Amino acid sequence: MRKLLSLVLAISLIFGGVTFLEPQTVKASGFKFSEELESALEYLNEIRRAVGVGELKLDPYLVEAAQNHANYMHMHNIVTHSEDPKKEGFTGRDMTARVNAVGYEDVSLRELVKNGAKSLEHGIDSFMETAYHRLPLIGHLNQTVGFGIAGDKMVILLDRTKERPENPDVLVYPYDGQEDVYTSFLGESEDPNPLVKFNLKRSGTVISYYTPEWGTVHTTQIKDSKGNDVPHFTSEEGWLFLFPKSPLKEGETYTVTVKYGSRTDTWSFTTKGKSSVGQGTPKDEESSIDPSLGKQFVDFEEGRYWSENMLWAISRGLIAGYEEKDPKTGKVVKLLKPKTALSEAQFLTILFRYGERSRTFTTSPKDKNWWASQAYVIAEELKLPVKGSHSNREAANAPMTRGEMAVILASYYNIKHLGGGALNEYDSIMMMYELGLSNGYPDKYGNTPKTYESYGAKDILLREHIVTFMRNYDVFLNNNQDK
Fold first, then answer.
1. Beta bridge partners of 190
2. Which has more pLDDT, 194 or 448?
């Protein structure tokens, strides 16, 4: 098999001062690993043992460098492999500079970064459900690791030693006998998106295969428990990847056979009883969102119609909240401001954080001094019917109505998923009803007639509204893929 590619990738979304800051040099001698780090190490090593590769060891220098970068990302609410020397918390422009800053000389460094991590174990799970980002975590050459987490921003650094371990005969994931495997994979959850080449938005769970044996021809087969063939695409990129063309069945056992060179390898795994949806996370996780996420915001209220939707948006990195000084106490507090009006620029940012992850990595802002510039570049590329622009920032920053939001969201869906064009307001509102994104306001009898008038098109869009609309949109997409 061809040499394993060096994949230094980012997951999740990327959404100065004048003087340059010197990197913060730290010392790792005498470092005592926390219970959280030891637990994450054991969790990852349990996976590696099942796969058949050697265990990783925590390295205090990698831990320190990973934590430094996680702190930087959390401080500036971004997910990135680079740091700006003009910004607070800077410890190095890239991962090599950051590990060098703590006194570490790397051999062959790998870095994974993530947004929306509820814990180190949750972040590891999310990486394992991707195609490319799982590879450093189960690669047999990596021997040391460092974890860092700040808020929901997470960093993993992995490295090799100069002593090369023996090659395994074969590595596969999901591993033989694995249970509770997710049923599907959403391509946009990973950058680069491995499904683009197949013109596929969602596949079944990604199957990975690696052998050091050289071969020029391979054949692959996936069968369910009844012996039915599972159609799939393959891609050889150092590892051999199998992408089922549709989500797998719930609670089903699948058997994979790969013939590569002179080898024939067969193994089986079983999917979860509940299907997997979203950005590499199972639906039952989303339906039981950690309620403690709301405790960091002083104005979060439980039991409101928007409460769980707001927590969902926070966990997905769509909403970050505000930090303001309390005039009474003088302390800085975090606020959600659910009753605050939303501007078109803010809505576009939320929409693209949800649906255009890859573009946020590759699209450059037209005006680096305007925070919404990238969003309007993407909107122009998609030909969305927006009112704001680089030349009309007043419209971009003005409060938008529920009808204006419907026009953008429905048009976005029509363009991206149906191959159509921009819609007018009436048709957009009818599509909001059709897709189940809104029921409109009830009449005096408590009925929801779902008319143009009952939608409230002229009402100002609030933050509590948008998290509900986006959650409904997410549910619709997850329930209607490949249908």
1. 11
2. 194
